[in-house]
Specification:
By secondary structure, the chain is an alpha/beta fold. It contains six helices and 15 strands. α4 runs antiparallel to α5 and α5 runs antiparallel to α6.
Length: 313
Amino acid sequence: METRKKIFRKGGFLDISFTWLFAIIVGVFILFLAIFAVTKIMETGQTAISAKGAKEIGILLNPLETGFETAKSTFIVLPVESRIYNQCDDYGTFGRQIIELSQKSFDKWVDTDVEVSFQNKYIFSEKYIEGKKFYLFSKPFEFPFKISDLVYITSSENEYCFIDAPEEIEDEISSLNQANLLVKNCSANSIKVCFSGGSCSIDVDYGNKYVKKNGERMYFEGDSLMYSAIFSDKKVYECQLKRLMKRAEQLSLLYINKLEFVERVGCHSNLKPDLLEFGSLTKKLESSGNMGYIAKVAEEINDKNELAECRLW
């Protein structure tokens, strides 16, 4: 006789075959495993896509390394709505540029926790930027010799409008021909960058060399760092600046070695003490507020190099 189990419900008892009950339990368990497996496969696939996307962004930065004094612009389009997370680590000799990519799947952001890092990239942006199309432009940073090319990333969803900028800045922005960077003709939703005060999202004091954003000041030397402060989160800016100064210190040591070599072949220079001081100062930089004195030393070094019997750069 078939074993049966009685289950109480309103109005009486419901007789269910034990075999059927067992089959239902097993079926539910198998369905749970199937859903769990599909979810894990999707997460793994999303992680792989995000890691690949982040690495491709790093690779796409290579053509932006100008080697010249002019700015250069390009753009990238990702297949789905994405967030590019810009992280910076200033630990070690050069620190690290870290990129994480999160992509939208079924109207939810998928965080992969996969990092792609570079020691020789310097990206300036907000903590994260969101969209499908992203604009990138770069500009070399010289202090006093070339330190690196700085890359600025913005989303096509964010429009920046430069108001009352110096003529050379206006000309440079116009020459980039970048759709989300405007001069004067601001739309209602644009992020306004003002150079003469006013109620703007970002205020640039070009004379005193600082950018005020979200109530905080970021000090700069040269137009390359000015753009960095305009487009950056303060934490990202300060960290990348420390990384750049660490690179400057290492480059100053290389130029000291070059100086010693050219002196052996009869080409004399008195730059060694200045380069040693410059390396020591850049290594100890704590924040952008300390850039002023280092900039004076860099300017003196550059003037001496211009007049040297054999120029080092």
